[in-house]
Amino acid sequence: MNTEVLAHERPLRRHHSRPELGALLAAAVVFVFFSVVAESFLRPASIGTVLYAASTIGIMAVPVALLMIGGEFDLSAGVAVTTAALTSSMVSYQFTAITWVGSLVSLAVALGVGALNGWLLSRTGLPSFIVTLGTFLMLTGANLGVTKLVSGTVSTKSIADMQGFASCHWLFASQFTVGGLTVKATVWWWLGLVLLGSWILLRTRFGNWIFAVGGDAAAARAVGVPVARTKTCLYLGVGFCAWVLGQHLLFSFDTVQSGEGVGNELIYIVAAVIGGCLITGGYGSVVGSALGALIFGMTSKGIVYAQWNPDWFKFFLGAMLLLAALLNSWVKRRAERGPGR
Residue 146 is inside which H or E element, if any? Predict the structure, then answer.
């Protein structure tokens, strides 16, 4: 990449290196609040439940955050998780009776969906909102239609007795308990993806490209940044993480409902925005997306432990989204003006 671009991007990154601070403060406030109002919130079993809820959002919030920093959206992310689970289950049951084969075919399908989104975006010039809305609708219909065609119902058949199920379950859905705290495999996947995503964003040339194409795609293209390839790779990342979460769902319950996943894409976006990402792109944090997912987990379970009406959860989430968006926009403007301005 052009050295002048790198020289420009590094100071910009230093200015924007702490977009997650607002989410960190919010997470601390939410934690203290529910620790006070819900007596059972701090019990090891409750903390394990919170971490699990956060991890199932956080796994997808990582690639969604990177995609948003790159200036794009993916409205198909929620149903893509279900597509990955359904593909793995039906291929295993109908053709091979070996779960690893179904899982690998599922990985190819998930990456194919991501590649399709990236290809359509670069070839058509349409907004990612329109492209991925179309993919969302197609996957939603295909999930239901193909499942009913193959299985005769809206859910897949059990694969619990098939070869490879135990090892797949260990990788994607195992858990261990220490002192009453149960930690599920999704937590380790989540932490690993956060570390990997942060390293890519902050320590690699590709991370510079993500910031550049999200800030100004035309300017980035003019100085040699491969804009189309960068965005396609980001969509492939969404596909991979959708596969990981889809395998967790399948090997946790051994069957999948074809209508699951609708609406989850908005939760992933909310987690990324609460964590510091701007809708306009070019600004955000992978660590912030993890904090946004943690806030989601603490709130969704904290309300239950406090024995409140769960209807208030969506109200709280919407308020957090608006406040986070306003705060992120203000912090970015302050950083761009520089100190003392």
Answer: helix 128-151
Residue pair 45/181 in contact (Cβ under 8 Å)? The answer is yes
Residue 70 DSSP label: T
Is the separation of the CB atoms in 301 and 49 below 8 Å? Answer: yes
The conformation of residue 16, written as its DSSP 8-state character, comes to T
Pair 315, 300: CB distance under 8 Å: no
Q: Is 5 helix (H, G, I), strand (E, B) or coil?
A: helix
Q: Report the candidate in 229, 92, 58 with the shortest Cα–Cα distance to residue 167.
A: 92
Residue type, position 60, single letter: M
DSSP letter (8 states) at residue 40: G
Quick one: which of 3, 27, 43, 49 has its CA closest to 187? 49
pLDDT value at residue 230: 97
122 alpha-carbon distance from chain centroid: 22
pLDDT digits (tens, 9 = 90+) for 90-116: 999 998 879 999 999 999 999 999 999
Among the listed residues 313, 256, 275, 223, the one whose alpha carbon sits nearest the alpha carbon of residue 19: 275
Amino acid (one-letter) located at 285: S
Q: Which of 216, 228, 245 is nearest to 9 (CA)?
A: 216
CB of 110 closer than 8 Å to CB of 250: no
Short-list 340, 321, 339, CA closest to 22: 321
CA distances 168 to 100, 188, 220, 235, 247, Å, are 7, 15, 42, 25, 8
Whether 277 and 283 have beta carbons less than 8 Å apart is answered as: yes
| Length of the chain (residues) | 341
User: DSSP secondary-structure letter at 222?
Assistant: H
Environment class of residue 311 by beta-carbon count within 10 Å: exposed (0-12), middle (13-18) or buried (19+)?
exposed
Q: What is the mean pLDDT of each run of 10 residues along the chain (341 residues)?
A: 45 56 86 92 94 97 97 96 97 90 97 97 94 97 95 92 95 93 96 98 95 94 95 98 98 93 92 88 93 92 88 78 75 62 53
Alpha-carbon dihedral sign for residues 308, 314, 315, 317: positive
Among residues 83, 95, 93, 48, which one has the least CA distance to residue 254?
93
Separation between Cα atoms, residue 311 and residue 6, nearest integer Å: 48
